[in-house]
Amino acid sequence: MTNNNKQDARSIGDNSFANKDYEDILQQAVKLLGRFNHYAAAAGYEISRAINGKNSTVRAVGARDAEIWLRKLKKESESWDTVIRNMEDGKDIHLQENCKSEKLDIAGGFESEFGQYIINKSSPKFSKENKDGRDYMSKVNAR
User: Fold this and answer.
1) 14-35, pLDDT tens digit by residue?
2) Where are the alpha helices (DSSP H) in 1-143?
3) Distance CA 74, CA 90 (A)
4) Please, are residues 76 and 35 in contact by the beta-carbon 8 Å criterion?
5) What whole-number distance in Å separates Cα of residue 111 and Cα of residue 94?
6) Among 3-7, 16-20, 80-84, the least confident range
């Protein structure tokens, strides 16, 4: 008897996407990008107020609020940035000294399926270099 139920086809710890609808993964990526863009746009608005405000109070509040938005952006993007930079540099992202905790952050966050997709583009655990990840990032960043 074959199992046609997509939910039962995967077990705990199975990180494959054989039965996953890529539309869900893309929606998570768009949501993440939208949130990062919102933070950057809000910070940009506040920086404009900090520079062009008509009095010192408006300028001070703009500078404070810009710093708040940038801190939110940094907090939410830090793990993503670390994993991506390590992949670009060809480092094994599964090792603690490189970015294992950041890798776990993106695979366990709100955009976990998108995070796992990025991680799956990496070389297998304990490889001397992350050639697969570096090649993928080079392809993505090609201009």
Assistant:
1) 555 555 678 999 999 999 999 9
2) 22-52, 56-88, 100-108, 112-120, 131-141
3) 23
4) yes
5) 19
6) 3-7
Question: Do the beta carbons of residue 90 and residue 130 sit within 8 Å?
Answer: yes
Q: Give the span between the Cα atoms of 67 and 46, in whole angstroms.
A: 9
pLDDT class of 3 with cuts at 50, 70, 90:
very low
CB 87 within 8 Å of CB 139: no
Domain boundaries, the chain: 22-135
Q: At what angle do helices 22-52 and 112-120 cross, to 10 degrees?
A: 110
Q: Do the Cβ atoms of 92 and 125 come closer than 8 Å? A: yes
When computed from its CA atoms, the radius of gyration of the chain, rounded to whole angstroms, is 20
